[in-house]
Amino acid sequence: MWTSALSLSSTWLAGFTVCFTLIATLGAQNLYVLRQVVKGSHVRACVLWCVVSDILLIGLGVAGMAKLLSHAPELTWYMAVGGASFLVAYGLFAWRRALYGGDAALVTAGRSEHSLLRVLGTLAALTLLNPHVYLDTVILIGSIGARQEGGLKWIFVTGAASASLVWFLLLALAGKRLQGVFAHPRAWRLLDAVTGGIMLLLAWWIWRDMIAG
To answer: Where are the transmembrane segments (predicted)?
Structure first.
């Protein structure tokens, strides 16, 4: 009994640790969520989308999608092209806002007027068109989870899901604490400048990997 409990807890902890280590970075998805939190725009929906998408992608990886992607180079290539193109466009738009102060109105309005559908559509694109998301969730985390024995696979997924929930709740909390800072237009411009740079850097990494491959 103690051996079984120890095995369950160690597997859950492994899923939590691996997932938290990989997702706790300021990537494209996380920066967009932070932006929405600071705006106070559809925060719960964004957090819910990110956690559910992580669970589904990790679950697919554990169920065998990691092997499928490794045997489908053409699908991976098309995903990389779409993802890199989207990141370039988003990065350039972010730099445009940084240069021309597109979000200055938010200082007085306090909220974004973007619809829920538009916000979730952008977030879905940043998630599903980014090959690095699949590398982290499906291939890396999923393949580690797939090595677990029997039902322990899904205990691993539960641990990973818990890590995703904790991370995005922490991100939401951090964003709320930063709302006072973003009462100034310069803060929005700085965030957009950093966001644009990270998006373009991610796009360059994707193109580099495509050329190298």
So the answer is: 12-34, 46-69, 75-95, 116-134, 154-175, 187-207
* Residue 201 phi, psi dihedral angles, 5° rounding: -65, -40
| Mean pLDDT, residues 86-92 | 83
Query: If we measure between CA atoms, which residue out of 160, 166, 150 comes closest to residue 59?
Result: 160
Distance CA 123, CA 94 (A): 15
The backbone region for 148, taken as left when phi is positive above 0, alpha when psi lies in -120 to 50, beta otherwise, is: beta
Give the residue from 3, 15, 196 showing the smallest Cα distance to 90.
196
pTM to 2 decimal places = 0.76
Q: What is d(CA 211, CA 213) in angstroms, rounded to the nearest whole number?
A: 5
- The answer to whether 122 touches 36, Cβ cutoff 8 Å, is no
**Domain span including residue 193:** 2-212
Q: In whole angstroms, give the CA distance from residue 149 to residue 63.
A: 12
Split into its structural domains, the chain has a count of: 1
Residue 182 in tokens: 């973003």
Reported as a single tens digit per residue, the pLDDT across 22-73 is 888 777 888 899 889 988 889 999 999 999 999 999 988 888 765 666 666 6
Amino acid identity at 50:
C
